[in-house]
Amino acid sequence: MDPNDGFRELGRQECLRLMAKVPVGRIVYTCQALPAVLPVNFSLDGDGTVLLCTSAVSELVRAIDGAVVAFEADDVDAVRQSGWSVVVTGSASVVTDPAEHERLARTGPVSWVPASQEVFIRIEPELVTGREVVGGRSLYGVDLTA
Amino acid sequence: MDPNDGFRELGRQECLRLMAKVPVGRIVYTCQALPAVLPVNFSLDGDGTVLLCTSAVSELVRAIDGAVVAFEADDVDAVRQSGWSVVVTGSASVVTDPAEHERLARTGPVSWVPASQEVFIRIEPELVTGREVVGGRSLYGVDLTA
Q1: Burial of B14 (0-12, 13-18, 19+ CB in 10 A)
Q2: What gap in Å lies between CA A42 and CA B106, rounded to an integer?
Q3: Which member of A142, B82, B120, B130 lies 3.0 to 4.6 Å from B15 by CB, making a disulfide possible if both were Cys?
Q4: How far is it, in rounded angstroms, from Cα A128 to Cα B89?
Q5: Model confidence pLDDT, tens digit, residues B10-48
């Protein structure tokens, strides 16, 4: 870590360990050519795949199925000006395999909304980046896409 | 509000009132053709303009100056499955007017990082959308870009 830049880059496993501590993250995608962001609850699969569960007819599914998205989770203490932020970037896809759907129905995330047609969305952990913010330093300049 | 969809759409003023309660949001932009997201502290100008303060040489400035970005703030209680999320979408630009820079140096956000060349970034509130999540319902389907 550069002692002057105020953050420490996190390794992939550390990123995933931190992500697993929080129930809600934010999915970042493009909608009508504009940047879009939506808080969602999630879980992590063994390999770091981000799993969402939502309605098959949701606008979210239509927007992200087959697209490259970013999924961000963080825990920032504004008083101490410290915390961490992790981003998983990769392709999002609706789980269509019946056996995989069944597995996720048992082990995957539980949607907060009662949906008649629930589907699971996988976000492949193609890029996992994160930064820990050193107390009293800023999140500014933490390029999570680096 | 549709009693079945689990959220209530917020008006512009209510969105801005809620945003003003939290010190940190997340800027959503595109970097190297990929979705990018970065937590940052911020303040709101009178008209709802989102103000950031960062280093003139930061990667963030290079990525967003002149671009349309989204800035999201939220407060979600995962236990109660309730909360709110607000997104301001608009053009981001570095403040270059000396008088405006001086005004923001007095009244704008304070960067968490000691930067020798601080600049202020304005995000125009061209689109301000938000949703309040009803307890026990999900954030899923809350299309903040609608």
Answers
A1: middle
A2: 41
A3: B130
A4: 26
A5: 999 999 999 999 999 999 999 888 899 989 999 999 899
Q: Which residues, 6+ apart, have CB-to-CB distance to A27 below 8 Å?
A: A37, A38, A40, A52, A60, A64, A69, A70, A71, A92, A123
Q: CB neighbours of B17 closer than 8 A, spacing ≥ 6?
A: none
Q: Which of chain A's residues have a Cβ under 8 Å away from the Cβ of B83?
A: 39
In chain A, the residue whose alpha carbon lies closest to the alpha carbon of B80 is A112
ipTM value of the model? 0.86
Q: Any idea which residue has 């995933």 for tokens?
A: A16
User: Which residues of chain A are within 8 Å of residue B115 when distances are taken between CB atoms?
Assistant: 140
Say yes or no: domain A8-133 is CATH 1.10.10.60: no
CB–CB of B72 and A30 under 8 A? Answer: no
- What token pair was written down for B26? 């997340």
Backbone angles phi, psi at B66, to 5 degrees: 90, 0
